[in-house]
Amino acid sequence: xxxxxxxxxxxxxxxxxxxxxxxxxxxxxxxxxxxxxxxxxxxxxxxxxxxxxxxxxxxxxxxxxxxxxxxxxxxxxxxxxxxxxxxxxxxxxxxxxxxxxxxxxxxxxxxxxxxxxxxxxxxxxxxxxxxxxxxxxxxxxx
Length: 142
Hints:
It is a single chain. With about 140 residues, this protein is mainly beta. The protein has one domain: Lipocalin (Beta Barrel), CATH 2.40.128.490. Helices cover about 5% and strands about 40% of the residues. The chain is built from 1 helix and 9 strands; from the N terminus they run αβββββββββ. The chain has an 8-stranded antiparallel β-barrel with strand order 1-3-4-5-6-7-8-9. The protein is globular and about 40 Å long. The N and C termini lie far apart (about 70 Å). About 15% of the residues are buried.
């Protein structure tokens, strides 16, 4: 092939595009349906909810507790699975939760490590770990 022609073809070729980033919208109120800690399902009658705001704040409530969005979170959609870091309101009491998240329809699956040792790579809570697995349903607006 003629070197000049090869150069022209190379320069005229379209640039390789990055894969589109996955967008995930966690904003809203989520009712806990299943909770697994240390590989063990937690049976509880408590009315647990997680609330995430569009501006990066979150909280967890039980029962009729009034939510206060004092904690913050960030999502990295470029990771696979999508990464979430959930900071607590008082970092002196506990480390931030580092985890992964996915949403399928109106179901969110959140899996995080409570000791910030390593981010989980699978949506599971192995026995003997500090990993928490939570399956939640988005609450419908009334």
